């Protein structure tokens, strides 16, 4: 298989140029942070608890696409598939702080954990209070008794949406942290890969998968899943993934959930809607009500073919923050 085609200039400049494009597309609502690879909202209210998100680039629209009112206040962007540096995180954190502290939400990966922790220590020395919520929604990454070893995938979005609403309404950092932790702990996801994405600078694919095979549970960077098999029909794949997600929390009859069907990069809307249809059927048969469904691109891996399914178990508080109006480049809700 040949190297994939991409519309790029110098591949070394992809992060800088995507941020230029993002800020231009947002019509003044976002600004680049002092020539750095980070974005912040141009208007953040004084006395607001700030929400900082971030991680490696290459997964757009995650993370910078979700900076906006009732979502995040800023996002440092690492190089492709690499964590942002501690100094970049610290500078972005300082830029969004409005005196009430900063909640940091990001995916649970070793590089991100280390660099965000270092930035938090430096922020503390500077008098900025922080709290951290690492998202670990990928049920395929580790068993339940090692949940803190799991990866963060598209469930990041639901946690960011809830945390953003809480940070807009609540004036206490510990309360915003409590709500975000509840959102994280009630969120579960699983992905399926059909074909690999690639690294812009090298053109190399992130994994190899035979043309007639899929991998259930593969991570957003091509991390190993739980089963590789011949491709079968969409209903069988969707039902297996949903069953595994439901068993993990576990979800039960009478629960109400939010559903996210996420495009990993190159999957058609047609395919995602076919999968969403089957997930709804499975949930209805289990006596689980779907409060809302989001279908689209939230966390991608370049041109990776595949999708992920995310469920968040809702209560009144989570539902209220999830449903709050929001506006950003990648997501708006009236």
From TrEMBL:
Keywords: ATP-binding, Kinase, Nucleotide-binding, Transferase. InterPro entries: DhaK_dom (IPR004006), Dihydroxyacetone_Kinase (IPR050861). PROSITE patterns: DHAK. One of its GO terms (cellular component) is cytosol. It comes from the Bacteria. Pfam families: Dak1. Transmembrane segments: none annotated. One of its GO terms (biological process) is glycerol catabolic process. One of its GO terms (molecular function) is ATP binding. Residues 10-331 form the DhaK domain. This is Glycerone kinase.
